[in-house]
Amino acid sequence: MSVTGNPLQPTVFELSHPGRGGGKIPHPPKDALERLPAGSRRAAPPALPEVNEPELVRHYVNLSQLNHAVDTGFYPLGSCTMKWNPKINEWAARLPGFADLHPLAPDEVAQGTLRLLWELEQALREISGMEAVTLQPAAGAQGELTGILMVRAYHRARGDTGRTEVLVPDSAHGTNPATATMAGFRTVSIPPAADGGVDVAAFRAALGPRTAAIMITNPSTLGLFETRIGELLEAVHAAGALAYMDGANLNAVLGRVKPGEVGFDVMHFNVHKTFSTPHGGGGPGAGPVGVGERLLPYLPSPRVLRAADGSFRLERPGERPTSIGRLRSFVGNVGVLVRAYAYIADHGAEGLREVSDDAVLAANYLKARLAGLLDIPYERACMHEFVASAASLKRATGVRTLDIAKRLIDFGFHPPTVYFPLTVEEAMLIEPTETESLETLDAFVAAMERIVAEAHDDPAMVTSAPHTAPVRRLDEASAARQPNLRWRPMTGRETPCPD
Amino acid sequence: MAPPDLRYTKEHEWVRPAGETATVGITDYAAKQLGDIVFVELPEAGRQLSQFAAVGVVESVKAVSDLFAPIGGEVVEVNGELATRPELVNEDPYGAGWMLRLRLTDAAQLDELLAADDYDELTREG
After folding, report:
1. Shortest CA gap A369–chain B (Å)
2. Using alpha carbons only, how large is chain B's radius of gyration in Å?
3. I need a surface site. Which of A55, A93, A104, A228 has the fewest CB within 10 A?
4. Can you give the CATH number for the domain in which B116 is found?
């Protein structure tokens, strides 16, 4: 990292000097302002920062270098699948035919993009064993909502309106109960069994004529494959309910397990996890949803259709009245979908299977290497991620998971997910992904060995970490209790303007 | 050790009965497990709560958890102090960190709660 000057940069507003600038924004026609109604015109110009181009570029380049990213280092954030985003994806998404296409372009001039979307749907069908896939949802959570809205439409279409509950295992992603609530259902939590799987007895007791669906993440957020999945899904269908799979952890089972063949009726894909598109801050997302036969009529519209002559078109409004409608403008976030397509096409079937095999191998390697250092609550072979716990270390030394996470920053590693899943005390959820080399994994283990040794010999070193980051230990409680959510100009030296 | 004069739930709430009313909060064990508490959402005064229903939210730097009514009753008072000083729950869970005062629906519901000894047994570290 080579940030110039104070690593904590002033804000761009503080760099501002009246009259300075560099942009050559084309002047509007002379009478443009007069054509706006008086009530829509500002009385005073907006307080935009005034900086010249080199100041602006240096400001943001320096800020960007304060980030930890997959482009700068190892990022074993559990359940997030922070794998490498191959640069060929970026090349593909920037091809002018995709990047410059107007979203309202008529089908005749959008054939290439429509074909890519159609082929991506076929690839995701093949990967998941589902009947059809919508690419429209803008993120995994919206994909969940899409799936559960289709479940609701399915039950309503049959006149089965007594199904008001969705069963969600305790180890689920927090988005699952939120989705069920958003769709108007009541969430019923199912506790885990001792082996980390779903407690089948509790599950059967909760299942009944009020159950609309079960939402299950497999492999689970404990990094464990749900070995009783066949039994669970059989019971779900016997009760007249549907089964939703949260596909967040699909990276563990590509080419090994097809959720559609397992018996799931609906699932979502997180393309930013499994198919290497950038995460969150990298731009918009996509959360395609696959469905089995029962939910086909309810897929969002418009779908991309292929005619007998091999040409492609979008479904017309109202063409399929059973559809739950539109979830996202146009056909979804196409730039992200192009990246996912590029990744799938680049790997092919064999390559994708290797992705999952290597992701599982890397996680089991790290788990075995860390076993002597930290508690490993679930000893059986893990999938793409595993849970470790600092509970014993905390009792022996007072050093908590949070301290270890902060100290890892000093060694150049992004901390793993901490205090999740909630069912494990002092939890760390570690997911190395398939894209890291053996040397990187070993360096991570070496850092952990040193931190655990420090916890015994020099605990203050760990509890006061990080020492080398641009900011030291943050007071998270105060930040949450008295959040300071926006920068405000200073009226005096110390006094911020009142809101 | 949980104070002997209170009753407890498995979900880590405590109840201090006093005649027809009772004070409710979360236990020291719960507050420690949650870590620094940053926000407490409580039901409005006047609301009727049924026993074991989810009635509020406790948010810490680690997690967001439901608050369950350990006993049924009408909310006669909530601890407004927690809106600006949620840290009271960590500092004094059985005192200044109290959450609700209820007018009890049925004092017999107290019998369904744990005594201090049983609660200590439940939360003994493994």
Report:
1. 25
2. 13
3. A104
4. 2.40.50.100
Indicate the length of chain A as a whole number: 499
DSSP string of A219-268, one letter each residue: S-TTS---TTHHHHHHHHHHTT-EEEEEETTGGGTTTT--HHHHT-SEEE
State whether residue A388 is helix, strand or coil. strand
Mean pLDDT of chain A: 92
Quote the number of domains for chain B: 1
For this complex, say whether ipTM is above 0.90: no
Query: What does the alpha-carbon distance between residue A69 and residue B9 come to, in Å, rounded to a whole number?
Result: 44
Give counts: helices (H), strands (E), chain A: 17, 12
Q: How many CB pairs under 8 A join A and B?
A: 20
Q: Which residues contact B63 (CB under 8 A, 6 or more apart)?
A: A419, A422, B34
Chain A partners within 8 Å of B59 (Cβ): 480
**A3-47 confidence digits (pLDDT tens):** 555 667 788 888 999 889 876 666 777 788 788 898 888 888 887
Name the pairing type of β-strands B100-104 and B73-78.
antiparallel
Distance of CA A116 to the CA centre of its chain: 23
Range of the domain at B88: 7-123
Domain residue limits, chain A: 84-469
Q: Rounded to a whole number, what is the distance in angstroms from the first to the last CA of chain A?
A: 37
Residue B2: inside a domain, yes or no? no
Residue B25 counted as domain residue: yes
Whole-structure pTM value? 0.87
- CATH code of A84-469, in short, is 3.40.640.10
**CA A97 – CA A6 distance, rounded (Å):** 42
* Residue B64 located in a structural domain: yes
Does the beta-carbon distance from A481 to B87 stay under 8 Å? yes
Q: Which helix (H) or strand (E) holds A98?
A: helix A96-99
Question: Would you call A481 an interface residue with chain B, using a CB distance cutoff of 8 Å?
Answer: yes
Q: Is residue B1 part of a domain?
A: no
pLDDT in tens, B52-81: 999 999 999 888 888 999 999 999 999 999
